UniProtKB/TrEMBL annotation:
One annotated GO biological process: chromosome organization
Keywords: Coiled coil
Annotated coiled-coil segments of the chain: 6-33, 204-474, 512-549
Entry GO CC: chromosome
Protein name (database record): Chromosome segregation protein SMC
SMC hinge domain span: 55-171
Length: 706
């Protein structure tokens, strides 16, 4: 189930990656399109800037119209052609001023449409009621009525049609026609078409709207890209975690399957032994019955023989007596024959008794073996139950770990969200800081203007005071009768001068005080922002200094260790690191320069595999001395080394193992001889076997023997 889920997640990951590829491809297309649009906007802006100071210049025809449907843009551009770049002006005098300016600044040639002279035919030919006809070009655009004649001059009576076949169907030569793809059918019969790049004839308003749409789409795609990246990171992390857990579980499951297979094999062996034992037991039972029957018969024979022996004994005695009495030799010989036969039967009976005891002992041994095998079967069954329980426990533990992983991923996602929010706040603060700086500069300029104005007012007041002093009456009063005409004349002159002074702003001092207070407030804000800016710069400079110091300290320490370690691994050789930019190390890289024993100085790319290995190990151990790690894993690092260099590496690892743990995978005896503990791995029948090695020499002898 987990593997199916993992496969589904990987398939989903591919879909998300494909979606990301499409989004990025579209972003690249938008960036290219924006570059094109911005270049056209810049061109339009440049054209407008040239004639900005000349009154009566309205812009190009393309600037003054708007295409209603984006589907018709290419057709309108083809219909208007170069005329869309003509500049619309009020009259021929304005056109002359523009042309003079172009000559003066050597800006090339342009065409102008004076509105007071241009003739735009307002009549259109009959509209063809045929399939494929769209409309006349003039009806597909919007424009100010003031510029109707200029737009009609540019577009004429051009008919927009759907495609090439539609133009043929309507009739070549009956109309000036343009297809939606931009093919042009002149009334003269000339047809223009082919691969068409964007002509860029439409004006600034079109491109500003186009740029706005592209910016909006790019922003939307950027947000989508970030969402997809977050989703990709989460998916990759989840898949990597699940793959790791799955590998561990597969390894455990493989071990369990091996144990289960071993148990099943042993069970089969036990079952086979039990079956054979049962068969043998059945045979023994049958044999026992046969032997019991045989014993019974033997006993009967024995009883018969004993009875017969008894009779023979009596008969023997009778014969002896008879023989003694009669001395018949034939009876004696018969007696000897019967006696021998009796002895033979007695010996056979004893042999049967011994065989019976042996069979009974064998039956007892088999029964004991059956009991032992049964107990072993019960033990193996118990082990299998324990393994199954362990498997279930591992599955439960895995589910718990998956839940923890999901919780951690959720926390990581929230942290990313918080990070994004903080970054947004920082961007907002930076924007606010920029706005305040602009406002501060504006206020500073305003305060400067007010200060200059106040200075002018104060100077004017001083001049007025000086004039009043000059006009003030001094000395003794003249005779009234004699001075009345002069006084009237002087009064009239003073009144005229007062009129020339104009109205006096009685709030000038108050306004000046307010503006001065505002200026001081903004000046205080400016000083505070300047102090904060300087503090930030100082902090950045301090961080850069610390970073550079830390880098140089680490670099020098590692470089010293590198030279010492490489000279140990390669006696007579030299190695060192060199920064590409001594003044600013972070703007360049670091080169590793090595001089192997008996060779010239070489860069890493030109060295052999063994030399690269020694250089890489020297760098690793040099870094380890500066910032030690408690654990190192080397996988066949001696593969490209000869025996002497491998021995040097072994000596170095042995020395470094006093402060760190090293696990080294090697196929070389010389490196293995330095290990504190050896673990062997062999493969038989496609199955790996791991075993401890107590004595390397014994393993090597076994290898030589094998």
């Amino acid at each position: 189930v987990e593997q199916d889920t993992l496969r589904q997640e990987k398939a989903y990951l591919k879909e998300v990656e494909e979606e990301l590829r499409k989004v990025r491809k579209r972003i690249e297309e938008i960036i290219r399109a924006k570059g094109y649009v911005e270049s056209k906007l810049a061109s339009a802006e440049a054209t407008a800037e040239v004639f900005r100071e000349i009154e009566g210049v309205y812009g190009t025809v393309g600037d003054l119209l708007t295409v209603r449907d984006p589907e018709h843009i290419r057709a309108i551009e083809a219909a208007g052609g170069g005329r869309l770049r003509y500049v619309v002006v009020e009259n021929e005098d304005v056109a002359k001023r523009c042309i003079d300016l172009l000559k003066e600044k050597n800006l090339g040639r342009m065409s102008f449409i004076p509105l007071n002279r241009i003739r735009g035919d307002a009549s259109l030919p009959p509209y063809p009621r045929m399939k494929g006809a769209v409309d006349f070009a003039i009806n597909l655009v919007e424009f100010d009525e003031r510029f109707e004649k200029a737009v009609r001059f540019a577009l004429g009576d051009t008919l927009i049609v759907e495609d090439f076949d539609s133009a043929k169907r309507i009739g070549t030569g009956s109309y000036r026609m343009v297809t939606l793809e931009g093919e042009i059918f002149e009334k003269s019969g000339v047809i223009t078409g082919g691969a068409q790049t964007r002509g860029g004839e439409l004006g600034r308003r079109f491109y500003e709207e186009e740029k706005r749409k592209l910016d909006a789409e790019e922003e939307e795609l950027r947000e989508k890209e970030q969402d997809i990246l977050i989703k990709l990171r989460a998916l990759r992390s989840e898949i990597a975690e699940k793959e790791g857990v799955l590998k561990v579980l597969e390894k455990k499951l493989g071990e369990f399957e091996e144990l289960f297979s071993e148990g099943s094999r042993k069970l089969e062996e036990f079952d086979e032994k039990i079956r054979k034992a049962e068969e043998f037991t059945e045979l023994l039972v049958i044999r026992k019955k046969e032997m019991e029957e045989e014993i019974r018969k033997l006993r009967e024979e024995r009883d018969y023989a004993e009875e017969k022996l008894k009779n023979l004994t009596l008969k023997r005695q009778d014969i002896i007596n008879y023989y003694r009495s009669s001395g018949v030799e034939e009876k004696r010989q018969e007696y000897e024959r019967i006696k021998r036969k009796t002895e033979e039967r007695r010996a056979a009976l004893e042999s049967l008794r011994i065989s019976l005891k042996e069979k009974e002992a064998e039956i007892k041994s088999i029964e004991d073996e059956i009991d032992r095998k049964g107990k072993r079967i019960e033990a193996v069954s118990s082990e299998i139950e324990e393994l199954l329980q362990s498997t279930e426990n591992l599955r439960t533990r895995r589910r718990e770990l998956e839940e923890k992983v999901k919780d951690i991923e959720a926390q990581i996602y929230h942290l990313y969200r918080e990070k994004d929010n903080v970054e947004d706040e920082v961007r907002d603060l930076q924007a606010e800081l920029g706005r305040l700086r602009v406002e501060e500069e504006g206020l500073a300029q305003q305060a400067s203007d007010l200060g200059a104005g106040l200075s002018r007012v104060q100077q004017k007041l001083a001049d007025l005071e000086q004039r009043l002093q000059e006009l003030s009456f001094e000395g003794e009063l003249p005779d009234v009768k004699e001075g009345i005409p002069k006084l009237k004349e002087r009064l009239f002159r003073l009144e005229r001068e007062i009129e020339h002074l104009g109205n006096v702003n009685l709030r000038a001092d108050e306004d000046y005080a307010q503006e001065l207070e505002r200026y001081r407030d903004y000046e205080a804000k400016h000083r505070k922002l300047q102090e904060e800016r300087n503090a930030i710069k100082e902090m950045i400079a301090e961080i850069e200094t610390k970073k550079l110091t830390a880098f140089r300290t680490a670099f020098e320490h590692i470089n010293r260790s590198l030279r010492r370690i490489f000279s140990f691994l390669s006696p007579g050789g030299k190695a060192q690191m060199v920064v590409e930019n001594e003044i600013d190390p972070f703007s360049g890289g670091i080169n590793l320069i090595v001089k192997p024993r008996g060779k010239d100085v070489q860069y890493l790319e030109a060295m052999s595999g063994g030399e690269k290995t020694l250089a890489a190990l020297s760098l690793i151990f040099a870094i380890q001395e500066y910032k030690p790690s408690p654990f190192y894993y080397f996988d066949e690092v001696d593969a490209h080394l000869d025996e002497a260099n491998a021995r040097k590496v072994g000596e170095l690892i042995k020395e470094k193992s006093k402060t760190a743990q090293f696990i080294v995978v090697t196929l070389r005896e010389v490196l293995a001889s330095f290990a504190d503990r050896l673990i062997g791995v062999s493969a038989r029948g496609g199955v790996s076997r791991v075993f401890p090695v107590e004595n390397l020499s014994s393993v090597l002898r076994e290898k030589e023997v094998s």
